[in-house]
Amino acid sequence: MEVFLIKGMCNTYLTSEGILIDAGAKPSDVLLIAKEHGISIKYVLITHYHYDHIKYASEIAERTKAKVVAPEAEADIIEGSARPKFPSLSLRIMSLFATIKPVKVDIKVKDGDEVAGMKAVAAPGHTPGSTAYVSGDIMFSGDAIESDNGKPSLPPRKFTLDQIMAEKSMKKLLELRPKIIYPGHGRPITMQ
Ligand SMILES: [Zn+2]
Hints:
Blueprint: E1 3-6, E2 12-15, E3 19-21, H1 27-36, E4 43-45, H2 51-54, H3 57-64, E5 67-71, H4 75-78, H5 89-97, E6 107-109, E7 114-115, E8 118-122, E9 131-135, E10 138-142, E11 146-148, E12 151-153, H6 163-175, E13 180-183, E14 189-190
Parallel strand pairs: 3-4, 4-5, 5-6, 10-13
Antiparallel strand pairs: 1-2, 2-3, 7-8, 8-9, 9-10, 11-12, 13-14
The structure holds zinc ion (ZN).
Zinc ion binds near residues 48, 50, 126, 143 and 159.
Protein name: Beta-lactamase domain protein
GO molecular function: hydrolase activity; metal ion binding
Keywords: Hydrolase, Metal-binding, Zinc
């Protein structure tokens, strides 16, 4: 499986199997990379409901007819029928100005579910339904693990709802012993 990084509000990844992980890169950029490599996008996997990860999901899904896959615990927020919780008042106020375009979730996943060869692994903490997607020894971690110059780390505390749970989830993900982690932000992490 080849993985292509498309930079945007968050790292957006396209695999050679036609799976897009998160939707923070502009649709035009995503479609260009897909075309360049002859890939048709069949699934858009969402790691969590944060704005920078879902911003372009509806437009990409519309233009590619891809199925949207997201954590069951966050589907109502991603679909726009519930409001997310925020770790601070300032983030809550900021969110009122961010117009999130809801997207219909076609497939809702919970821990252990598999879609198109990707296994969903629940990694709550950063958000309640944060989910990593794993294929063999490759892991797409969303913001459950970020990259601090190629080393696993957590996002800034102010963006995380439950820091203790986030720490536990990171530990759990690392115990799966991925060889490469593709994080939501920062550069890919190669594990020894
Ligand atoms: Zn996030």
